[in-house]
Input
Amino acid sequence: MLILDSEHNVLHDPDLRLVFDPARRRWLAAAGAAVGRECSWQQAAAWLQRGSGHPVRAPVAVVGPRHAGPEELATAKAIGSGLAEVGFAVLCGGRQG
Output
């Protein structure tokens, strides 16, 4: 579980007592209690890309074996689609991809 504090533009991991600073792209020790609303990893990634003011500009690659089976292909497609849905630029494929 993560806590999004949109007022202070940070993401908290209360279990590890860390706070994510999107400007520095680092998890830091939290100074106080987490304040905000609970969010999933998907919601946190969407906030990072769309709401934090500091989106990841570098593309994310989805890489697998050259001769992938049906399950591997389905997994790669689901991961790439999920990343793209929250705003990441995704690189996929290659030789046989």
